[in-house]
Known about the structure:
This protein is α+β, with helices and mostly antiparallel strands. It is 40% helix and 19% strand. GO terms for molecular function: ATP binding; catalytic activity, acting on a protein; magnesium ion binding; phenylalanine-tRNA ligase activity; transferase activity; tRNA binding.
Amino acid sequence: MKDEIRRVGEEALRELKELDGLEALQELKVKVLGKKGTFTALLRQMGGLSPEERPIMGQIVNEVRSRLEQAWEERGVELDRMALEKRLATERIDITLPGLRVPRGHIHPLTQIVEEIEDIFLGMGFQIAEGPEIETDYYNFEALNLPKDHPAREMQDSFYITEEILLRTHTSPVQIRTMEKLCPALPVKIIAPGTVYRNDDDATHSPMFHQVEGLVVDRGIRLSDLKGILLNFSRQMFGESREIRLRPSFFPFTEPSAEVDISCMLCGGAGCRLCKGTGWIEVLGSGMVHPKVIEMGGYNPKELTGFAFGMGVERIAMLKYGIEDMRLLFDNDLRFLQQF
């Protein structure tokens, strides 16, 4: 039995040297040292030995087992290293090859326009104000001189959540909220960029779009101040050669009210397809703040005056970049967006 144990050990060591993989190493270990392995089977026969032979056989078994376990560990480390070298050789990266460029994202054209508008007005001393997109009927209409029975409400097909809560149809509610917050401090000089919602959807309208509202309230504010601010804005946004004109219009929250046109960027005012032969392009609405709106904001309309204006960011972007269909700005087509 002593010779058989040594023979099994020597045979196992010989097979270890011939192995070429970790999986084969594990299979051989089970074959020799497993519950049904050849070495384990020999150990079970020790029960039939005499008391004098058992210590001798036990010493031999421990020696052989120790050699096998050490050999298994060493061979395992060696096979693991060989497997790693083989994998590194097959997965070798040629560092001299040029890398793959990951496409870089960039700011959406509408965001670019909003940031440009903000920079222009910040440079003229305005501050940026914000308000909620889910608005009450009071701030969206009533406080802006649009009572519940006012016919001008029909001009804006609104998204109502309840009878008194809706998605705001313009950024004008920020005017009232800001005046309430600042009153009685002066001057009030803000722009309010933000998202608004109306039930429109065609080439020049979207159910969700963006506006920038402007408001100035102080002592001695005149219509000429409004014109000067808007002329400066138009020249910074569309070019130093731009001129503007104010056409009489109607808005419930301003009196007098005016539509603002700029001289055509394409023809310089001579008349072309873009300006429909008139030489002028409409860009925004404006006017002197209605006394009732000033009063709703907490100020005294007998002592103060102000002006307000509002522009659609999409319209500014379409004019600046020559875009004919507003829906392109919301399609998320990378071929279109990468042009900006």
